[in-house]
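CORE FACILITY INTAKE
Project code: CF-77B
Contact: R.S. (postdoc)
Sample description: multi-component assembly, two entities in total
Requested service: structural model of the whole complex
Turnaround: standard
Below are the sequence entries exactly as provided by the requester. Do not edit them.
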Amino acid sequence: MGHSDGFTQHPIEQAVAQTAPPAPAMDVWGDPANFRPAPAGPGGAADDEAHGAGGGNTELYQRIGHLTRTLHNALRELGLHESLADARDHLPDARDRLAYIARVTGEAAEKVLNAVDRARTVQDMLAGGAKGLESRWAAVALYADGGAERATPAGCELIGDTRSFLRSIDEQAVQTNAILTEIMMAQDFHDLTGQVIRKVVALSQELEEQLVHLLIDATPPEQRRRIEPARLEGPVVDAGQRTDVVTDQAGVDDLLASLGF
Amino acid sequence: MSSEPRFLIVDDFSTMRRIIRNLLKEIGYANAEEAEDGVAALSMLRATKFDFVVSDINMPNMDGFALLKQVRADETLKGLPFLMVTAEAKKEDIVNAAQNGANGYIVKPFTKATLEEKVQKIMKQHA
């Protein structure tokens, strides 16, 4: 068969360059005639060899010829299969979409952090203002305590309520700041999801390269170069099914303590 | 260590750098600068004095492990407190960090209380 000729005329690098934008699988493969197995019929190489080897081997050679034909068809089908080519063609688009998600979620997280910062500033101003007013009302309360002619009972009660309210603003500001911290901390999703997206993008890049190689070389799937996982994995997304990872900070602390740290 | 320790926050995600910076401020450490990877961090550490490093692991150009090794191998930086804050939860990575001289290890997502506890603990050790 003419496979080797077809491959040497289309080095992988050259073919990859030629397939951007992706070319139809047939163009990558070259002339399909190169892949046609030797005919099993009269005059064909298989036929000659079968006769030369004796009639007892005819069936064997026919089977080999049949297998060769089947294999060739399967490989050709694999190379021309639209879904395979489509999968390869759609990977860049999938990566772009993931990058878009990473960018938009990142921008959203930044907006939230900006809003938290602004809210903190407003909250601090409110608390500071309330504190200043409360100290002034304290002086008024001291004066009002001097006698009935200085303030009516209702006035004294109002002064007390106002001071109480102003003090509560300071306490509520502390609570609000704690809530703002929670909102800020929740934005760490961008880091965590971003790392996962980055890993998926890298994998899809690998996958695309593999598909291109497959389309070019028509190598059986089991011989495809294995996609080696990156040593640093990023956030664990399947902690429940693994024993080689910790699931929380307590796990980290226990592990370090067991090592004497 | 000076009265106001200077922190270097190393993370390739600006969101996380900002979160850690704000948290440090909340727990009383307002003096902090940021670097987006190990290369930038090492350059800053060699150019200016810092008192504490809070570093991610998984970063481009130079990851947190490489940065830690460079810091520990540098005569002037080797004693610098170094806290890992990372999403890497593999036991192998935690052991690796400890063996290479990290002073603490926090897995993301984490809480303000966890960061405060680890930072204060390391601060005490280096007081």
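Facility notes:
- Confidence is low (pLDDT under 50) at residues 1-53, 223-230 of chain A.
- The first helix of chain A runs from residue 3 to 8.
Invoice: internal transfer
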